[in-house]
Amino acid sequence: MTLPLFLRPYFGTAGRTLLTVCSLLILYSLAAPVWRWAIADAVWTGDAQACRAAAGACWSYVGVKLDFFLFGFFPPAQQWRAGIAMAILVLVIAASLLPRFWRAPLLAVWAASVAVVLWLMGGGAGLAPVASDSWGGLPLTLLLAAYGLALGYPLGILLALARTGSIPLLRYVAVVFIEGLRGVPFVAILFMASVTLPLLLPEAATPGKLLRAYIAYSFVAAAYFAEGFRGALLAMPRGQTEAANALGMGYWQTMRDVILPQCVRSSLPMQVNTVVSFFKDTSLVVIIGLTDFLRAVSAGSRDAEWLGFDVEGYAFAAATYFCICFAMSRYSAWLEGRRGGTVAAAPAAGQTP
């Protein structure tokens, strides 16, 4: 009997057949208990007593705590504001992912979204004020990730240009900035921003805890973006710059119209990897007392009525992070395919310290 073509890589030979059968058995032995716990024996509705009497997962706990998971310690009566702010942020991000919106007005939309989101979250102008220390949950995670990376991305490009440029002072400043931030753990940078900065500045001039975390997050992201863009710049053929110079283009016009568009395209995998990594790193703000999405899930498990169901909460958090990160990865693959893949590597265009 001739095997169908799609089965031949798995059952084409005796060795492949044995390996496939063993792999399926191992997969079944792992998946079956998870299926029973998460689906078959799970409790989807009911109270804590019903969950304790069951052998499976208690998803009713996630349903009861969902508001707290999403919004943390944000005042319950004002959570609609955080929900609208999160929706606005998601819409702006979604619009930014579509190439047809990649125009100058998009910058104005981002600037307007900052004003509206901060007004909804912080209050004022008719809304009850809410201290930034009370912001939390998924809106805080998205706010830090979106606006932090939005600042770190262009700053990373400027640092890469400075490090590969011909001006020694700018080059060494960029080297110190990039290597200094990349060489220190992000947790240590957050801790320094939270503890050390208030000691160095007058109390009136000390930024709030959230702003300090945002600045640290943006600067570290810029350092990692800069190294990725530097690699893309060094991989560009010399002929690109020489041809632009022959046409009478200046440095900034060459970078804007010739070099950077190709660098951005060729470094898409690096960019997505950095975005995914830093999106997950928003959970590190717990070290300075901010309640991000993961911290809210952890805090919810301390409710005396629902003790013992923290695994379900962490499973929900893991699924949320996975869905968002997987969507980023698939978007990157779609964008690479749409724009014809990446630029092939070429000899280095310059030297850096």
UniProtKB/TrEMBL annotation:
CDD domains: TM_PBP2. Pfam families: BPD_transp_1. GO terms for molecular function: transmembrane transporter activity. The lineage of its organism: Bacteria, Pseudomonadati, Pseudomonadota, Betaproteobacteria, Burkholderiales. Gene3D superfamilies: MetI-like. It is a multi-pass membrane protein. It is found in: Cell inner membrane; Cell membrane. Coiled coil: none annotated. Residues 138-332 form the ABC transmembrane type-1 domain. PROSITE patterns: ABC_TM1. One of its GO terms (cellular component) is ATP-binding cassette (ABC) transporter complex. One of its GO terms (biological process) is amino acid transport. Keywords: Cell membrane, Membrane, Transmembrane, Transmembrane helix, Transport. InterPro entries: AA_ABC_transptr_permease_3TM, ArtM/GltK/GlnP/TcyL/YhdX-like, MetI-like, MetI-like_sf. It comes from the Bacteria. Its main location: membrane. Belongs to the binding-protein-dependent transport system permease family. HisMQ subfamily. The chain crosses the membrane at residues 80-99, 106-128, 140-162, 169-193, 213-233. This is Amino acid ABC transporter permease.
